[in-house]
Amino acid sequence: MFVQKTLTRNPKAELYYDLVELFSGFLLVGFLWTHMLFVATILLGSELFNNLSAGLDKYYLSYVGIPFIILVAFMHIFTAGRRVPTRYQEQKIIWRHAKMLKGTDTWVWVFQVITGVSIFMLGAIHVWVVVSGWPIQAMTSAERMHAFWWFYIILLILGEYHAGFGIYRQFVKWGWFPRKPIGYISKLITVIILSLGIAALFVFYTMAKGGGIV
Amino acid sequence: MSKRKLTFSIFRYKPQEPDAKPHMQTYQLEEEMGMTIFVALGRIREDQDPSLMFDFVCRAAICGSCAMIINGKPKLACKTLTRDLPSTITLMPLPVFKLIGDLSVDTGTWFRHMSLKTESWVHTSKKFDPKAIEEKMDNETALEIYEAERCVECGCCIAGCATANIREDFLGAAGINRVGRFMVDPRDERTGDDYFEVIGSDEGTFGCMALMACDDNCPMQLPLQMQLAFVRRKIAQAGLKAKTKVVTL
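^ inputs. structure came back:
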């Protein structure tokens, strides 16, 4: 028995951490997939895209949604992030262990940590750039995509990877479905969203070229 | 058909020898019909190097003593046939457990700690009457208990677990499975609160990140994903309802 541990022990703390990790993760995946569907409306024309953006603004959904998602993202970083090995030796153990075991799910997790940290940095830049160039308009988005297409491809792949495998892992963890089918389904959704994202990116890129911005 | 020549690269280190340094040592051996890693190790010790340390007792995947890392995967040496492996075979001791020497590790201390921590016995207020007829249990429950009890405590799930490799206090699949076994046992009178107290933390069920190396590598093919998830759901429910006290001065 240690005094410092007895005096600070909250038996439910780690239960709440785990539940916050679960629900914040679900919300972020839901957000990301909806976000990509909204972006993909450009495939149906820039008028629809602009109307959707204006509609979200009109009903204050963007002004409530963006700060809310940032808050949820921080909750996710603090709860899921507690599992990230921070000490040098721990990181070396995990790296050695993953190489030795060659377990798919272990490697997937290693990359989830890497993608998670990267999304934190790139996502922050993305939010800053979009918010400072408010409102969202097809033409301004096209300009951004044209100039920084590589940035958006990297962020898209990192985000979809992290979300797709994150949701897979939660289903595995809580056992609502067996591993194999849930793996196929989450991979399928990820591929669909990725294709939509890349198609939208392509449309924006050509729009900027055709629109005489170049 | 000519016999294969097998090359074994084996981890050698005796921590109790002051000048010893961990290193890999190679041995060569001719493969025989139906050869297991356990048989091969016996050959090496008999014919080539009597100082090689490794554990075994039953040779039939019942005792769980001969678990080791075979070409990167935790497996039982007695259940692994050389014909299923390439001709170069690397053997390492299980991580997480205390190294005794070479391939021999002390799983006993770890499992004893886990058994005590999870209080692995039926908690009942009923007095045992040796003359009374035994109470009946329905077949389905008995089978569920038996499924979890098939664990041979070899330690493969612990060695394969990334969390257990960096968190010494993590009870791992073996520990969580053990609690699951008592949760379905109608004779055990422990409540959700009691179970939550034992494993409702990152040391227990919430420490699991679901990397499923336990599920992939269990030599007894225990349904560990579903068992771990079952315990996680039960413990989360119990925890949300539990009346717990936070010490304040």
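Residues 136 and 142 of chain B are 10 Å apart (CA to CA). The beta strands of chain B are 5-12, 23-30, 67-70, 73-76, 88-92, 98-101, 104-106.
thumbs up if we can close this ticket
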